[in-house]
Amino acid sequence: MAESTNLDEILARLERLEAERDIVHALNRYGHTLDYGDKAGWVDCFTPDGAYELRWSDPARFSLDTFPEATLTARGTRFTGAAALRAFVDKHSHAPNAWHKHVMVEPQIAIAADCRSASVVCYGMRVDSIDGERIITGFCRYLDQLVRGHDGRWRFSERVCEIESLR
User: Given the DSSP bridges, would you call strands 46-56 and 76-80 parallel, antiparallel or unpaired?
Assistant: First the structure.
């Protein structure tokens, strides 16, 4: 019996390690798809009813004139569902017209006991090429809720971007 329990514990640990690796992959996929204009891929980073919220230190900075598909929140702007997410990414800059990188660092991952959902807090920064110089144009903190789909892929059910500095 002890041998079986030990194997069960090892399998549970392996499942959690694989989940953590796959979650980091989801975080990185977000930046890769956004920076290179893979719009369908970026929308697919979210669940069909997923939400992306931009929270601003100065809420007046963002206008619904640019994104009528969004809704205003107490601190920013929220895009909910595939159509609103697509409207956001359709207006976002990407290569080859704009060279930038969304970089996720220091993820703190908390996986639910059943390995079907997780909460993540990580830092993000955007590095741009402007007039031949590489400049950090913004940094933020992401507050994420992810779920593992029936296909095994992790997707954001909610991603909140707390923008702390933006050029």
Answer: antiparallel
- Domains assigned to the chain: 2-166 (3.10.450.50)
Q: How, if at all, do strands 154-166 and 46-56 pair?
A: parallel
- Give the DSSP H/E element, type plus range, for residue 96: none
pLDDT over 80 (residue 58): no
Question: Could you read off the pLDDT of 121-154 as tens digits, one per residue?
Answer: 999 999 998 898 999 999 999 999 999 999 999 9
- In order, the DSSP letters of 105-165 are EEEEEEE-TTSSEEEEEEEEEEEEEETTEEEEEEEEEEEEEEEE-TTS-EEEEEEEEEEEE
CA distance 150 to 113: 17
In this predicted structure, what is the pLDDT of residue 62?
Answer: 66
Provide the residue type at 27 as one letter.
L
Using alpha carbons, select from 14, 16, 25 the residue that is nearest to residue 107: 25
Q: What pLDDT, on a 0 to 100 scale, did the predictor assign at position 63?
A: 66
Q: Which residue has the higher pLDDT, 41 or 5?
A: 41
Closest CA to 69 of 56, 57, 85, 49: 85
* φ, ψ dihedrals at 86, nearest 5°: -65, -40
